[in-house]
Write a structure and sequence with these properties.
The protein is of the alpha+beta class. Helices cover 25% and strands 36% of the residues. It has helices at residues 41-48, 71-78, 95-105, 110-123, 139-151, 169-186, 197-203, 310-315; strands at residues 4-13, 16-25, 30-34, 56-61, 64-65, 81-84, 157-161, 189-193, 207-211, 214-219, 223-230, 236-239, 245-248, 254-260, 266-268, 278-290, 293-299, 303-309, 323-328, 333-336. Strands 6-7-8-3-9-10 form a 6-stranded mixed sheet, sandwiched between helices. Strands 13-12-11-14-20 form a 5-stranded antiparallel sheet, covered by helices on one side. A 5-stranded antiparallel sheet has the order 15-19-16-17-18. Strand 7, helix 6 (169-186) and strand 8 form a beta-alpha-beta unit. Helix 3 runs parallel beside helix 5.
């Protein structure tokens, strides 16, 4: 089943255009939306929240085409989502009243509002701020209040734009774990926009990359789990399975998750003798277009992806079944504990 199905969808804001050829989002999954500032992440979330209307193309939600001409339908759809948008606005009222505002607007009883608000304030360490004016909060406190206001709604879709922006380090993991728990317990679909690659890899392996107003990929590449060991001479290596080992430049011993930038992986017909410590031979199993580049997937014992130029693709005469070397430096491997 598909929850969102966007096809040939275009949205224009001032001099910026978001163009989505195709995007499908399945229910009950955590997606991470990543990309540089100004790439279109927030515009994409606004479309999914039914806040912005596409200039052309179709948006299908839960099997039904969205009728943007019906205010009642849009209101009904918006109430199925919990949104934390960029630069959220808090009302000039107490923290407690801000968090409960959406519940009250939905006609939830006062007793249920008290229970729900008390629970979310406890989970996000906001109980001591309940009676404080929202306009007297620090940036990190205000962000957590805005997040609580979105999460308390028990919505089937959570759309969270930079949920840990301005949040102090001690609370970032608390926020991430709560979001993931809501996904597990409620089966809520979660779509998180973030500029932090570490946060992306901690929260999801379903990645939507937005570049220059276009969605360039849905899925993930080069994210692996293993156990990090350190030799007596200080050399660090991560054992992924019986046959595969990756050299890394950082990390503490124990279970870890690795992320390798596909752009840092070099392809060659022969083993490169260089300072790069990771040299794996594999057979090409898939080749994909990626805008002006090409993604090449090889089976090296793990499925490894390299993002190369079209010129390199043609110069190497790559095709399915060809044996090539995948080479990358230890410093190109990001270790996430």
């Amino acid at each position: 089943m598909i929850l969102y199905d966007l096809k040939d969808t275009v949205n224009v804001r001032a001099d910026f255009k978001l163009a989505i050829e195709a995007c499908r989002i399945e229910p009950g999954i955590v997606y991470a939306v990543t990309g540089p500032n100004g790439s279109g992440k927030s515009t994409f979330l606004n479309l999914l929240a039914f806040i912005e209307r596409p200039l052309k193309g179709s948006v299908v939600f839960n099997g039904q085409a969205v009728n943007y001409g019906s205010p009642n339908e849009l209101l009904r759809l918006r109430r199925r989502t919990g949104c934390l948008l960029q630069n959220p606005y808090l009302f000039n009222m107490s923290v407690y009243d801000n968090i409960g505002y959406g519940l009250k607007a939905r006609g939830i009883s006062n007793s249920d509002i008290r229970k729900k608000v008390a629970r979310i304030m406890d989970e996000l360490a906001l109980v001591h701020l309940a009676g404080r004016s929202a306009h007297a909060l620090s940036g990190g406190e205000a962000q957590r209040v805005a997040l609580a206001r979105a999460l308390v709604l028990d919505a089937e879709v959570l759309l969270l734009d930079e949920p840990t922006a301005n949040v102090d380090q001690s609370h970032i993991r608390v926020v991430e774990e709560l979001i993931l728990r809501l996904n597990r317990d409620r089966k809520a679909t979660v779509i998180v926009a973030t500029h932090s690659l570490d946060q992306v890899y901690r929260m999801s392996r379903n990645i939507i990359t937005v570049m220059n107003g276009r969605i360039s990929d849905i899925g993930y590449a080069n994210v692996f789990s293993g156990v990090l060991n350190e030799d007596a001479d200080g050399l660090k290596r991560v054992r992924l399975d019986i046959k595969t080992e990756i050299r890394v430049a950082e990390g503490q011993p124990g279970p870890v998750t690795l992320a390798i930038d596909p752009q840092a992986v070099i392809l060659s017909d022969y083993e490169l003798m260089s300072s790069a410590l990771n040299r794996l031979r594999g057979t090409i199993v898939k080749i994909e277009e990626a805008g002006g580049s090409v993604r090449v997937f090889g089976d090296t014992g793990i499925i490894l992806c390299a993002l190369i130029t079209r010129k390199s693709y043609h110069d190497l005469n790559l095709n399915i079944g060809k044996s090539v070397w995948f080479t990358f430096k230890a410093s190109a491997v990001r270790v996430i504990d």
